[in-house]
Specification:
Helices cover 40% and strands 20% of the residues. It contains ten helices and nine strands. α6 packs across α7 and α9 runs antiparallel to α10. The longest helix is centred in the middle third of the chain and has 16 residues. It starts with a strand and ends with a strand. The structure holds adenosine monophosphate. Adenosine monophosphate (AMP) binds next to α2 and β5.
Length: 258
């Protein structure tokens, strides 16, 4: 696995691989990797033959009151995991590389960003589409893999690629969970042992919701289990999506409706 930090060094490597007939797969991440991220790398390997993974904690998708500074960063472990998963290039850009280097147009997230996350994180998806567009510009992959864990994000990216006519196939990968059904997330590292136990009830409540379609019951169970606030529980795209707070940690999840 080669570690590359600049777009200048990245571009010729990828151009060489493409000239050699390789199909380029790309997995953008914010690091603090877990098996969910590694499943995306595996998907990318299945759909391409040269896999680029980026790690960049993107400041513009965090609001000033959010956890950008405390977001977990584990570069050493991340490198080992990606190497073992068969990554060809790990791209580790710095902010200047992505935000000051000849990119002049700011784009806005489309209609898929309306509601849900945007009610509570109004600037989030504009930050996401800008960084993903810049990473796409730098890597120019044939395919890119995103997790269904961030289901609204996946729809926002698909819409962006359609609107800008970007020639990249977007592949959605299923949610990886722990043995209790909790969706893996870098932010699970914030949870205490007691909170982890409570967090593991989230997916069970979603499964019950799929059976009874009763939002009030779902909210009441979560609040009585120890969640302190439900930002939303809502149906869209044939799924039920949820964001809920456990102490100072915000968890999201979603599952398919019947
Ligand atoms: P992040 O590092 O949180 O920005 O996530 C990078 C990518 O990994 C995104 O496409 C996420 O949707 C995906 N991802 C995060 N957690 C999971 C999970 N538990 N299962 C599948 N994909 C995930």
């Amino acid at each position: 696995m080669r570690i590359i930090r600049t777009i200048k060094n990245l571009k010729p490597e990828i151009a060489d691989s493409r000239d050699n007939g390789l199909k380029i797969g790309f997995v953008p991440t914010m690091g603090a990797l877990h098996d969910g991220h590694l499943s995306l790398v595996k998907y990318a390997r299945e759909h391409s033959n040269f896999v680029v993974v980026s790690i960049f904690v993107n400041p513009t998708q965090f609001a000033p009151n959010e956890d950008f500074d405390s977001y977990p960063r584990n570069e050493t472990d991340d490198k080992e995991m990606l190497e073992a998963a068969g990554t060809d290039i790990l791209f580790l850009p710095c902010s200047d590389e992505l935000y000051n280097d000849g990119f002049d147009s700011d784009i806005k997230a489309g209609v898929a960003s309306n509601g849900l996350e945007s009610i509570f994180r109004p600037t989030h998806f504009d930050g996401v589409v800008n960084i993903v567009n810049r990473l796409f510009e730098a890597v120019k992959p044939d395919i890119a893999v995103f997790g269904e864990k961030d289901y609204q994000q996946l729809q926002v990216i698909r819409e962006m690629v359609g609107n800008l006519d970007i020639p990249i196939e977007i592949i959605g990968a299923p949610i990886m969970r722990d043995s209790h059904g909790l969706a893996l997330s870098s932010r699970n590292a914030y949870l205490s042992a007691a909170e982890l136990k409570i967090a593991r009830t989230l997916n069970k409540v979603l499964q019950e919701y799929v059976q009874n379609n009763d939002i009030d019951t779902a909210k009441n169970i979560l609040l009585s289990n120890g969640f302190n606030k439900i930002d939303y529980i809502e149906e869209r795209w044939g799924r039920v999506l949820i964001a809920a707070w456990l102490g100072t940690t915000r968890l999201i999840d979603n599952i398919q409706l019947k």
